[in-house]
Amino acid sequence: MTTKRYATRRGVIVPHLVRAMAIVGLAGLIGVGHSMMRDKPIRLVAQHGTNYLDQRDDNIAAQRDRLGDYDAGAIPGMTPEQLLDAPVIPGMITLGEAHELFEQGALFLDARSDSAFAEGHIEGAVWMPASEVLMRAEELFAFDPGMPVVIYCTGGTCDASHNVQRRLEQYGPDLGLVFTDIRILGLGYEEWKRAGLPTSEGMVGGDG
């Protein structure tokens, strides 16, 4: 009788244990996936001269190579004319190059916060921070995927623009949204404004 009762209880308990373990395992996988999908902006914790460097990387020379001729300390003292050709981090475009694309009708995406966008943004830009790419992707279907896309934030070592680019490249194909020419502006909105280039204020369509 005792053996039968034990077997019965075991038959009830074991499935519950298996189900609980499965739920815990699934939660763990979801947690790992979420961590991998989160934006991981560059955490710049030190400054050497006028170039921001990451102390986690011991190869300071390699970091200087990545920054190229970009000089964050020189930007505030530049005239509007000098800003147009100010050196930027390799792989990004200058303010002058971005303005040429603006004149050609390129799509500009603002990767900053909604409050920063409302205070002022590049004329015609679409507010599209990385956290909103999936929610607001439908706004981008109105644009030709073959047109140049310029993403901007505060410029320099700000990684928000790169996060938007990564999200577009990660989720765009599944959404049927593939831009073939994405550029990152090396300077930021404040420099665009200081250079006297076209700006607007407020959230388009009353958003935010």
How does this model look, in words?
The protein has 208 residues and is α/β, with parallel strands linked by helices. The chain contains 8 helices and 8 strands. It has helices at 2-37, 60-67, 80-84, 95-103, 114-119, 133-136, 160-175, 189-194; strands spanning 46-48, 51-53, 107-110, 121-122, 126-127, 149-152, 182-184, 199-200. The strands form 3 sheets. Strands 5-3-6-7 form a 4-stranded parallel beta sheet, with helices on both faces. It has a two-stranded antiparallel ribbon with strand order 1-2. A two-stranded antiparallel sheet has the order 4-8. The protein starts with a helix and ends in an 8-residue tail after the last strand.
Class from helix and strand fractions:
alpha/beta
Tell how many strands the DSSP assignment holds. 8
Give helix and strand order, one letter per element, not per position: HEEHHHEHEEHEHEHE
Principal-axes shape call: globular
The biggest sheet, with number of strands, parallel, antiparallel or mixed sense and barrel status, is: 4 strands, parallel
Poorly predicted parts: 1-56
Query: Treating each run of at least 4 consecutive H or I residues as one helix, how many helices?
Result: 8
